Amino acid sequence: MMRVLMTSLLSIAISQPVLAAFELQPLPYPATALQPAIDAQTMTIHHGKHHKAYVDNLNAQIKTYPELDKMSVEQVLAQISKYNPAVRNNAGGHYNHQLFWSLMAPTGQTGEPSAALLERIKADFGSMDEFKKQFNAAATSRFGSGWAWLIVNPQGKLAIGSTANQDNPLMDIAELKGQPILALDVWEHAYYLSYQNKRADYAAAWWSVVNWKTVNQLFAASAPQSSSTRSSSEQP
Ligand code: MN
Question: What is this structure's pTM?
């Protein structure tokens, strides 16, 4: 009896810190900061309830997969096919939301696209307007819940697409693969209080709070290897 008690106490002592491997960071601005594009109540519920649930549910999976405790969420996503749907949904949900908060900023603090990014947008989409049009088309045409993405694909080009549920382009199972540099949450929980069924209005208003400083940084960091390295590594 005593031994059973000791063992369970010990396991509690050991497992407690392990179960908080993934952390919910605070929003990088007040919940009111993105108004009127995104209302404060939506931000509070979205971050404090929805994102928190993804983090809590991902941490709960450490019981099933102890190795998750030592992995970054990006490492988990890169081999998501090894895991159950709970890890897929919640690791995706945690990464996507953490990225999403960082991709928005209050009006006046959003910066603007860097010259390098603008050049690539023009090269890959024709113009900034055309890029936004295609991105919003991906956001509004995604059936049900999901995300719209701008990624740097493995060929080093910008590409637009969307994923269902909490999937994302870092997952080994994704059809659209690459490094995300911009993302829009098109789950109803992201916009319904202010926009109801008008997803297109939400997607249009959202551009006013896009944090180009973060997009520029992600774009710069995802620059492909030099073309000589690339082409030599791609030779058969
Ligand atoms: Mn969401």
Answer: 0.87
